[in-house]
Write a structure and sequence with these properties.
With about 375 residues, the chain is an alpha+beta fold. The protein contains ten helices and 20 strands. A hairpin with a 3-residue loop joins strand 19 and strand 20. It is globular and about 65 Å long. The protein binds flavin-adenine dinucleotide. Pfam families: DAO (PF01266).
């Protein structure tokens, strides 16, 4: 007999991971999704996402990363496919930014490999990178790329085979967190618990995080590099360029994906239900950041300019907001650029809280990356 019933709203990485963790614990799970499953408009729906240990000032998340990697390994064993390409991650620092010291402290405490690349070697190893203005280059060993579309699809297939019920094209318009009730397409559904994992739509379903998170319209570009660099690009690691005023992250083409470049400046504006046509204004900042990072950037052919949405914190904290709401609901919101790599781990934590394995207060602090290494060892979920 099931331990209880749970309605999960949203079939992105947060919702599907929570469904996976609840299903493993013996709960009866239903997933409501406003579009198809997986949904191309979801933040999670993309060719690749970066995963890595180096976290700058958000040290608490660096300490979660060994568990986050282990949770993905467990997921891949369970779905029978490995959607992860291991790769080093190389950071190019262009100014004296505050990233270096806390990152090196966390990597050292975790025993994760890293080293400086002498600046004189950068041009030879990474001929596509602009070396003017570089102050430091750091290579880290533990990281790589996750392949989200394949992960979401395989997870859906696995969960369906285990009895998870999917309600596609079912937009939830109302949630009653005290009664465990949702209304979707005009019909009421009840469960012992409701988990809202609605990504950039979260504030349309609950007022709980209205002061904390905001959707942010972002642009990314998929590119074809100049032919003479194509081979090199297929072999380079994930590249991250960091300055005070601009920065880019670049995922090289791997396993059938395209070269992708994005920046890490949040617009904190836009509506996830709005249009997704990339305008010149959407890509202007990204293009100028890319010109600062790469030589001859204008020779790269643009294959697609894509608009997608982050949910980000209103302040600069970039922390997950995971909170109980009323007697029967939880709200899960990934904030900024670590929602995919941490999704399965956070989903497991939410399921652990619902199953009574961990207190609500500790779950919220843990998901916010506010436990240190010693506390994390003691707080690991028992699933
Ligand atoms: C450009 C970009 C680059 C990123 N890069 C990285 C990276 O390199 N590494 C990393 O770890 N993270 C990265 N992220 C962040 C990461 O992708 C997100 O944090 C994560 O995918 C969010 O997942 P989610 O499940 O919370 O939201 P979503 O994937 O958006 O899922 C929410 C789902 O809920 C559904 N929904 C919403 N409202 C309703 C409703 N009322 N009824 C029914 N269904 C509803 C939506 O349709 C959607 O399918 C990046 C994000 C962006 C935008």
């Amino acid at each position: 007999m099931a331990r209880g019933s749970v309605i999960v709203v949203g079939a992105g990485i947060a919702g599907l991971s929570t469904a996976w963790a609840l299903n493993r614990r013996g709960f009866d799970v239903s997933v409501f999704e406003q579009g198809p499953i997986p949904n191309p408009r979801a933040t999670s729906h993309d060719e690749h996402r970066i995963t890595r240990y180096a976290y700058g000032a958000l040290e608490g998340y660096a300490y979660l990363m060994p568990q986050a990697f282990a949770m993905y390994e467990r997921m891949f064993a369970d779905i029978g496919a490995d959607h992860f390409a291991r790769s080093k991650v190389v950071y190019f620092l262009r100014e004296e930014i505050s990233w270096h010291e806390p990152t090196i402290r966390a990597l050292t405490r975790l025993g994760a490999g890293f080293r400086d690349i002498p600046l004189a070697e950068v041009a030879q190893r990474f001929p596509m990178v602009r070396t003017d203005g570089l102050t430091r280059a750091v290579e880290t060993d533990d990281g790589g790329m996750l392949f989200p579309i394949r992960i979401l699809t395989d997870l859906t297939v696995t969960l369906g085979a285990r009895g998870v019920r999917f309600f596609a094209d079912s937009r939830v318009s109302e949630v009653d967190p005290e009664a465990g009730k949702v209304v979707a397409n005009g019909r009421e559904h009840r469960a012992d618990h409701v988990v809202i994992a609605a990504g950039a739509w979260v504030n349309k379903l609950t007022p709980l995080l209205a002061d904390v998170v905001v959707p942010s319209r972002q642009a990314v570009m998929y590119l074809a590099p100049p032919p003479e660099l194509a081979r090199l690009w297929s072999e380079v690691p994930v590249l991250i360029d960091m300055g005070l005023r601009s920065g880019t992250y670049t995922l090289p083409p791997r396993r059938g994906t395209r070269l992708k470049i994005g920046d890490h400046v949040f617009t904190r504006s836009g509506d996830a239900d709005g249009d997704r046509l990339a305008t010149g204004a959407d890509v202007e900042r990204l293009e100028s950041a890319a010109r600062l990072a790469y030589r001859d950037f204008d020779r790269y052919q643009v294959l697609e300019r894509k608009i997608c949405f982050y949910t980000v914190t209103r302040d600069d904290s970039e922390r997950f907001a995971v909170r109980p709401w009323g007697a029967k609901a939880w709200v899960v919101s990934a904030c900024s650029g670590h929602g995919f790599k941490l999704g399965p781990l956070i989903g497991d934590g939410v399921a652990a809280a619902i199953a009574g394995e961990r207190s609500a207060e500790e779950t919220s602090r843990w998901a916010a990356g506010q436990l240190d290494l010693a506390e994390l060892g003691a707080a690991e979920p028992a699933a």
